[in-house]
Amino acid sequence: MSRARNHIRWGILGAALFCLGAGVLWRHPQSERETATAQERTAQAIPATPLEAIPFDGEQAYQYLQSICDLGRRPTGSPGMQAQRKLIAEHFQGLGAQVRQQPFAFRHPVDGSRVEGANVIVHWHPQTKERLLLCAHIDTKPYPSEDPVRPTGHFIGANDGASGLAALMEMGRHMKQLSGPLGIDFVFFDAEEFVFNERDTYFLGSRWFARMYVADPPNYRYRYGVLLDMVGDADLLIKRDYYSVKWKDTRPLVDDIWRVARELGVREFVSRRGPIVLDDHIPLRNTARIPTCDIIDFDYPYWHTEADIPGNCSADSLGKVGSVVWEWLRQMQQGHTF
Prior knowledge:
Blueprint: H1 7-21, H2 32-40, H3 58-69, H4 79-94, E1 98-107, E2 114-124, E3 130-137, H5 158-172, E4 183-189, H6 204-215, E5 221-229, E6 238-240, H7 242-246, H8 251-264, E7 269-273, H9 281-286, E8 292-296, H10 315-333
Parallel strand pairs: 3-4, 3-5, 5-8, 6-7
Antiparallel strand pairs: 1-2, 2-4
């Protein structure tokens, strides 16, 4: 994932600078009563599908994760990234979606050369003007900078990079079952962490996407966005992202998704607030004004190390996250509001 999460010290300083620059004010976290009130505020209740009846297949998602990792390193501009974009296009086109690329370019932070990047945008029911956005980043950091032995070694990015894509590849197999009044887009961000030191700029793909959404607006609008990042940890624990509950426009979205998890009995979604994490949801919300929450398990001991491999991820974790998001989408398509 990237995020300036370089552990808590950098994360807190970076978050403060980023959000001050974006004009976001600091607020105290909401009280437990405020959270409970938001969770109870549901205009239309939709009975939850039993977890065992949800079609999302964690084992299939895990197979996708392994196939992605078999491509090798996937930093922006690499052969692995080119192969991955081809894999994404063929997979979703084969499922009946419209797929397009959103190219952009930037200067290499070390040698100044031109680097070509591209987000991949997948449209389901493209004629629909009101839409939901599900997204993940697909690039891997150039090196495993946090590895205690080989910080310039080989980084495969199973959880931090492949897990969000794998979950959405599996979800794509079931999108025909989710027809309704809302269109749905999957967006895969490139260059989320094409960084070589902590002075380099993160989130280049999502920043570009957000700027284009404002500067050259499409003929549709996103009601909400959900970011999936690091959702494959075998020891899964998903806390409420700090910013997603701090922002007033995204807090009800978090409450709603966590409500679905609770109804499904997915206890890995916990009510505790997580640490400050910078991620792709920030430019989506602050620049594009799309209320977007981050579903992320940041308590991952192999973050940015050579040990971020498929063996430290699990089908069960992918299945639980995918099932929660699938059920939330189903309820939204059935007319649920919050």
